[in-house]
């Protein structure tokens, strides 16, 4: 059996204060609070700008020993350069402190832009440059949802992210690595809608099946109306 980890995409959300976070909890203590209720979180700020090594070491020091951080890859690689000639950018990203997480580093997520069509040669060059840690790829252009992608990711041991996006983007579920990576952006409204009991039961069944043969990481990204942490707790209860 694989290990199932369930958490949220990020933890700094003002609208969570007084709801998921107790009223009056200091902002600097929010990660500690979240890490005592979940065993993983996805770092989203690393997508928008490189963090400092001190950020990663501070996060590591404030969380339990068995806590794991997934880290979202920098948009310079995926959205600005669109995977082209990104060797220096990859090195800069990993040198920013990502690898300093050590055993607390989970998968690194690379989310592609919805405007980038299928480019197999460019993808192959990108995959060949990735360091030997776990990686997941989230696709958003429909042309990427094809058997050749599954074959390439399987060859490199990179997980094809199972992302639910209210039908806006492709929602593949093919296993391509020794772990599964799930991002739940909302099944009815992107980033916003809460999951019903029926929807959570569906995902619990799917995660339970995947966990028979691989680790599974699940992150709720329906963060706008406070649903993410509550849905994450509800799914974890179903799988406990």
UniProtKB/TrEMBL annotation:
| Pfam families found in the cross-reference section | DUF72
Please report the name of this protein according to its UniProt entry: DUF72 domain-containing protein
